[in-house]
């Protein structure tokens, strides 16, 4: 393997400059998905950053935001596909942030004082820090003509709404990526104790909206006995799908059949240290599982039903005694089962059709987004390269059978027939929440892990050619 000590010193010596003059300005851009101005600023920042080392940069107009595709020439012609996202979640609960979310200030987190100084910013962890850290490494290697492998770079501006444009491009323009041999998503995946967490898959996702509607105007509640009640009807529909903490529809009502390897990995994870790390990092104070094994089994493999939004009736201050004429909810379902998201949606749609016979409101259901769960073999060259990378940096690796989160990795596997993984070093957390952070002193390992990964992965490719 061609590890150049001069490159390591360059990365280390340039780290403070990278943080202050590149990363922090990027994190200050408010690129949450529906903020057009911030999205355009982030897109322009990226295109300006990669202009000097990319041979080809293309922009596709997206359903909401631009999609950027670029090629970088390396010593191995066969390209590795790199997926990155530049949109973030919006901000809520401003009062809970210890520092404004787009100031990218360096602070100590009161709840995690032992990890030291952190950059507090939306996107610090998910996923603008790894995006720019990876590009920084590529730029340095290209400037010295030492990039070991060619790269195809994807910048998704719609990941937080399910990547509709990327999905369409994969389906209609897969020839763009036909020469790629694997796909990698640079990320920050160390836990609070410093272990590198390597997850062999992601859950699938189904996002849908259900509305119940009456033809009436909002009438006084004294009429409630003789008119449809959309809010109560919607509750009845929801309970027909999920009640008593269980799905009432097949196939998600069926218990996930764990493999022997998955059972072994769950047992290895089910310890007090891991549980405390998860709870502290996520800000969880109350759990429902009765023992460590069941906690991890439920967390990783049981399907989730989350009612993220429920709207109906008078939502301002004060009281208004009326019968709402509309109720709506947004639901997200995450599943480890090897199922089609469309098949799950069709079952839910049929169930709602049955339930609708017993209620007076009209029911509308719409799918917002969906994709299947994904897996990668622990013996793949991507996994082996990452474990080797962490070994070089004296970081212990912990293997998880799957992530509890969902990601559209299965679309890459399905359309391109290649493996995909997300991994990397660095400590961060509070994705989608207040006080999203990345630990300052861990950022050097983020950049070094990308450098070593490119070298180790290229070495695997060279040996097999």
Question: What does this protein structure show overall?
Answer:
With 465 residues, the protein is α+β, with helices and mostly antiparallel strands. The protein folds into 2 domains: 5-200 and 376-464, Aminopeptidase; 203-256 and 302-371, Alpha-Beta Plaits. It has 13 helices and 22 strands. A 6-stranded mixed β-sheet has the order 1-2-6-3-7-20, with helices on both faces. β4 (105-108) and β5 form a beta hairpin. α6 (230-241) crosses α10 (341-355). The two termini are 15 Å apart.
Key structural traits:
Alpha-Beta Plaits, 13 helices, 35% helix, globular
Q: Give the CA-CA distance, first to last residue.
A: 15 Å
Number of helices: 13
Task: Return the CATH topology of the largest domain.
Answer: Aminopeptidase
Give the structural class.
alpha+beta
Inertia-based shape:
globular
| CATH architecture assignment name of the largest domain | 3-Layer(aba) Sandwich
Total DSSP E strands: 22
In CATH, what is the homologous superfamily of the largest domain? Zn peptidases
Helix share bin: 25-40%
CATH top level class name of the largest domain: Alpha Beta
Question: How do the strands of the widest beta sheet line up side by side?
Answer: 1-2-6-3-7-20
Strand content: 15-25%
Biggest pleated sheet: 6 strands, mixed
Which whole number gives the mean pLDDT? Answer: 93
